[in-house]
Amino acid sequence: MPFIIYFYNTALPIHRLCGLIRAINFTGEFIFMTSSLDKLFTRLLENESIFKDKEVLRHSYTPDVLVHRDNQTEELATILVSALRGETPSNILIYGKTGTGKTAVTRYVGKELENMSDRVGVKCSVIYVNCEVIDTQYRLLANLARQFGEDIPMTGWPTDQVFQKFKEVLDTQEQVLIVILDEIDKLVKKGDDVIYNLSRINSSLKQAKVSIIGVSNDLKFTEFLDARVKSSLGEEEIIYPPYDADQIRDILYQRAEIAYNKGVLDSTVIPLCAALAAQEHGDARRALDLLRVSGEIAERREEKYVTEVHVRVAQDKIEVDRIVEVVRTLPTQSKLVLFSIVSLNISAQNQNLGTQSITTGEVYNIYRKLCKTIDMDILTQRRVTDLMSELDMLGIINAVVVSKGRYGRTKEISLSVPINNTYDVLLEDYKLTPLQSYTHNVKIGYF
Predict the structure, then answer these.
(1) What does the pLDDT read at residue 187?
(2) Fewer Cβ neighbours under 10 Å: the N or C end of the chain?
(3) How many domains is the chain built from?
(4) 48-65 in b/e burial notation, b at 16+ Cβ within 10 A?
């Protein structure tokens, strides 16, 4: 009976493999089989990429020229120019919807400020912090101190000691520090102590000066701030309007010229990406994602051109990915509120009632039943309404306040995301798994 030996590790030279077989001293037939994976990447690499530089289509890329943001760039530079004179710039709050160029403009101006400071002989440093990642006072202060060479542990020190170390290392020379706090609302929701301390740090510094730039998608986040913090932080405010379809198209043409090889984009691709993104409140990030993912889909299909078909497929893929990412990271109580809304929508479909206006009262009644089913604490109706407002801000639902005359006002709720995808993602949470059959028992208008 012959022996069959499978060799998957082809890193060894063939003469060593043959020597190994002879050393085994078996008699029989030896068959060499190499894995099909050996040639997989070779074949894929042989296909010419339609991309010239895909990184240009990423959110992290800052272009040399910012299209249609001249006014905002000029306004920010006008405020920060005082740093080049060794003075303390005003603290700034920058508002605007996602994808309106807030981060790109801020980082661009910050980079130009640092370059100019070297020429004029004034020490200026710009530190960018994403508060979605660094979202506590300790982490922020430790991160800032590490930028100046201080060895701060990830945990273990009292926060005031970390703050003191940061002040000491910062004040060792004359310099102006600009701290960009992107997604500042994520930091503030966990407490505004660090903003209070940073906004008043200049009073305890002898040589250095500090200015804060807060960037947020939430125009209402200052409601979480103490009045003293609000007055010192928002010395200057800049509002970024959404891009329109023509402006997004110009941005895409600028990026596509660098990102793609010549002639691979169909003439309809960029106008379609721009039009779809303009519908989403002028979100240039979404447009760039569409343009990039469309190319990736074409490349995976080993096609040489990007067409409208690829854009349509990319749109569906991005939408599903966004739902999965956002819904999966929601707190359990927010998931329960969303599950209540999804249940009411599924029930309306099952009863052939079409599109129904769902009120906050109906959602709350279902929510209470869900909490009892899985033994969760029941929040007050006011708190549930706040959670719905957060879901509205995330773009998962659409909540419109309507007047019921002498019966008062209420919110009419509708889903802004596909029902089935949302339902499946919610049930991935093991706490909500027992609710799988619950939607079959929901009756519209009956509580």
Answers:
(1) 86
(2) N
(3) 4
(4) eebbeebebbeeeeeeee
